[in-house]
Amino acid sequence: MTSLTPLTALVADDEPLLREALIGMLARTWPELRVVGEARNGREAVEAFERLRPQVVFLDVHMPGLNGVEAARAIRQVDRQAVLVFVTAYDQYAVAAFEQGAIDYLVKPVELPRLQETVQRLQERLSGPAPDPDAPSQTTALLAQIAARLQQGGPSPFLQWIKASVGQALKLIPVDEVVFLRSDEKYTLVVWREGEALIRTPLRELIDQLDPAQFVQVHRSVVVNLRAISHVVRGLNETADIHLKGRPEVLPVSRSYLHLFKQM
């Protein structure tokens, strides 16, 4: 690839803030790459690829309508040499593909050091000799494997991270780092190891998406991460208080939920 032929890319993700964040990080790590198109779903991604023919395509795995894997298959039919990068919340979806070198992937939230590694691999691939003639069929097989994993519902049915606006930035909070959640009128307060933020999703909706082996409701307005509990102090009238590891807040346990801590 010569300097007279600028490298171009397409970024597809149904979350506008995540698209913008990835494009901004690409500008820092790969200034020679020109992002010529954006897409909000798989169908838009395929249409944009057919129109723009970029060398690199960043595809979110989970998009409405046509998902990232289905879009990748359609793109491969247009150009078997297109370089694909999946962006996924579940690294298990793409491990096999990544290990065999046919497809690269990034795990949300995308971190700069990991993106730099991907950029280096993509640059080497694009500047090297033409791919092995067996590579397209290998990629097709890997796409089929990942699609099968998607149809099975993925490696975990539970929420993996929570999106929250902190100032002008979108914060992606790993669920494992959440200490507790508390209902706050129309919002939910999410408290994690490094801070807190309000989100619009009601607590009752979040409860159904959390792993019940890790998160329990202890009050009509409070859900706590069991791994974040330091100790529980019993009070009067069949109530108790939860003390947390490394946090000053004390959470109430109402009578209805006291049975969860009988052995503590």
Task: Provide an overview of this structure.
With 264 residues, this protein is α/β, with parallel strands linked by helices. It has two domains: 8-151, Response regulator (Rossmann fold), CATH 3.40.50; 161-261, LytTr DNA-binding domain (OB fold (Dihydrolipoamide Acetyltransferase, E2P)), CATH 2.40.50.1020. Helix content is 30%, strand content 30%. Strands 2-1-3-4-5 form a five-stranded parallel beta sheet, with helices on both faces. A five-stranded antiparallel beta sheet has the order 10-9-8-12-11, with no helix packed on it. A three-stranded antiparallel beta sheet has the order 13-14-15, with no helix packed on it. The chain starts with 7 loop residues before the first strand and ends in an 11-residue tail after the last strand.
The CATH topology of the largest domain is given as Rossmann fold
Return the string of H and E elements. Answer: EHEHEHEHEHHEEEEEHEEEEE
CATH architecture term of the largest domain: 3-Layer(aba) Sandwich
Q: What is the approximate shape?
A: elongated
Q: What is the assigned CATH homologous superfamily of the largest domain?
A: Response regulator
Poorly predicted regions: none
Work out the number of β strands.
15
Instruction: Look at the structure and give the mean pLDDT.
Output: 82
**Helical coverage, percent range:** 25-40%
- Classification by helices and strands: alpha/beta
Protein name: Response regulator transcription factor
InterPro entries: CheY-like_superfamily, LytR-like, LytTR_DNA-bd_dom, Sig_transdc_resp-reg_receiver
GO molecular function: DNA binding; phosphorelay response regulator activity
Modified residues (4-aspartylphosphate): 60
